[in-house]
Amino acid sequence: SGGDVLLKVTGLESSYGRIKALKGLNLEIHRGETVALVGANGAGKTTFLRTLSGVQPMGAGQIWFDGEDISKVRADQRMRRGICQSPEGRQVFGPLAIEDNLLLGAYTQPKQNVPEDLEKVYAMFPILKEKRKLPAGTLSGGQQQMLAIGRALMGRPKLLLLDEPSMGLAPLLVQEVFNVVKALKAQGMTIILAEQNAFAALALADRGYVIETGEITLTGTGQDLIHNEKVRAAYLGM
Ligand code: ATP
């Protein structure tokens, strides 16, 4: 809390061969904020989050996190510092037990933290506790999304990256996922939420950024953006 800067990104570029997916992106996240990243399919949301967690290489630019320049810090070290990601498409390990999937998210943690953190995740997602010995592949899409979020929480995030958590879910489950994000926000977690479901994301976010072809084109409070005519036309179908 206090509203100090947790993440500052300047001039961030990232490419796939000759395709520039991020073209000099600038953004700032304060501690305790929930920030929505909205944009069309292919705008660069996933590339941005993967560049932050370090699994996608960056070209030019700088990433400052928690007061340090982490531009050259490896992905596993970024996770250790508290950048934890729930990836697009969930990517849980189907044949592995649900509990073992959660433990994968804790591999950077000291052993003594793990039982306590598991219980916190189970308290948040009782269905995962009930089914903890079963292969993750037996879970429904919505439950797998909860598992992916739970796995990220096992890393004790200072910054939680959620990539399209509502993707492919039925409307009722979409609401459940957004309720989870709301609960994490209420706990004071700092969150970046990349979503094509722009209305729901902006409605719960403190602030939002609109990303178009690898650049930030608009920013404001969630409410500002919901009432912005360009946003309404392009992303809210109004
Ligand atoms: P989505 O919601 O579909 O994930 P996005 O906003 O997350 O969209 P990205 O997936 O980051 O967008 O894609 C940004 C740009 O990079 C797009 O032009 C896309 O075609 C390109 N791109 C993404 N992944 C690759 C890849 N593995 N190889 C080549 N180009 C890629």
TrEMBL record:
GO MF, any single term: ATP binding
Keywords: Amino-acid transport, ATP-binding, Cell membrane, Membrane, Nucleotide-binding, Transport
Keyword ATP-binding: yes
Keyword Nucleotide-binding part of the UniProt annotation: yes
PROSITE patterns attached to this UniProt entry: ABC_TRANSPORTER_1 (PS00211), ABC_TRANSPORTER_2 (PS50893)
Organism domain of life: Bacteria
SUPFAM superfamilies per the UniProt record, alphabetical: P-loop containing nucleoside triphosphate hydrolases (SSF52540)
Domain ABC transporter, residue spans: 7-238
Similarity section: Belongs to the ABC transporter superfamily.
Name the UniProt record assigns to this protein: ABC transporter ATP-binding protein
Native source organism of the sequence: Giesbergeria sinuosa
